[in-house]
């Protein structure tokens, strides 16, 4: 799926959910929490301000980010068998460093 985000939107690949607990118990699909962490795949050109200038985004392609639980809209990328999110940059809570 070739997507190009617009304005202040970004495309994030959500990391996979944990398959088992720290104690080794396998989790069924309905018990898995969706991770709120992922990798930025694409970024838009930035937010258009009232004065006509564009504010560039603070995240970049390749960044690992933490985001809110209900961030963005989820889509299934059938070609690459992965879940992706299209969200606004403001839904990002932090960039993971290191």
Automatic annotation (TrEMBL):
Quaternary data: Heptamer of 7 subunits arranged in a ring. Interacts with the chaperonin GroEL.
Compartment annotation: Cytoplasm
InterPro entries for this protein: Chaperonin_GroES, Chaperonin_GroES_sf, Chaprnonin_Cpn10_CS, GroES-like_sf
UniProt main location, coarse: cytoplasm
Keyword Metal-binding: no
Protein name as it appears in the record: Co-chaperonin GroES
Family (UniProt): Belongs to the GroES chaperonin family.
Task performed by this protein: Together with the chaperonin GroEL, plays an essential role in assisting protein folding. The GroEL-GroES system forms a nano-cage that allows encapsulation of the non-native substrate proteins and provides a physical environment optimized to promote and accelerate protein folding. GroES binds to the apical surface of the GroEL ring, thereby capping the opening of the GroEL channel.
Keyword terms: Chaperone, Cytoplasm
Name of the encoding gene: groES
Entry GO terms, CC: cytoplasm
GO molecular function, one term: protein-folding chaperone binding
This protein's record includes keyword Cytoplasm: yes
């Amino acid at each position: 799926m070739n997507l190009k985000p617009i304005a202040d939107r970004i495309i994030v690949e959500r990391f996979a959910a944990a398959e088992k607990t720290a104690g080794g118990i396998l989790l069924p699909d309905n018990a898995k929490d969706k991770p709120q962490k992922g990798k930025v795949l694409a970024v838009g050109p930035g937010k258009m301000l009232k004065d006509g200038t564009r504010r560039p985004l603070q995240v970049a392609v390749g960044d690992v980010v933490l985001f809110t639980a209900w961030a963005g809209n989820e889509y299934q990328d059938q070609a690459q068998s992965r879940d992706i999110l299209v969200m606004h940059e403001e839904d990002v809570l932090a960039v993971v460093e290191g």
